[in-house]
Specification:
Layout: E1 2-10, E2 13-14, E3 17-18, H1 19-36, E4 40-47, E5 58-64, H2 67-75, H3 77-89, E6 90-99
Antiparallel strand pairs: 1-5, 1-6, 2-3, 4-5
Helix pairs in contact: 1-3
Length: 100
């Protein structure tokens, strides 16, 4: 199994919305990928509640059967559509993939 974790820091204001509004929109869009992309075994999105300066705003945790499934997910048109929005509202991104 492959576990895929991504964290984002968001802009205070982007795409006509506040950081909080964009975080909620990201959560909804990312979680919606579970129904649209068959390779996704599990997807969970959290919005940060910790107010320390070095905390990230949104985190994605997802699971895939194997690396090939992760790559299919990453290239899927629905994922790319969400990624386009995320790219417009984020300041920073961190990612880790690991085998469990």
């Amino acid at each position: 199994m492959i576990k895929h974790v991504v964290m984002w820091k968001l802009k205070d204001f982007a795409e006509g919305a506040s950081k909080a509004e964009n975080a909620r929109k990201m959560k909804s869009q990312l979680e919606g990928l579970k129904k649209k992309i068959s390779q996704v075994r599990l997807i969970e999105v959290g919005i940060n509640t910790n107010e320390v300066a070095d905390a990230y705003d949104v985190v994605l945790y997802s699971e895939f059967e194997n690396v090939d499934d992760l790559h299919l997910y990453q290239k899927h048109p629905e994922h790319l559509k969400v990624g386009d929005f995320v790219g417009k509202v984020r300041l920073e991104r961190r990612v880790v993939d690991y085998e469990a």
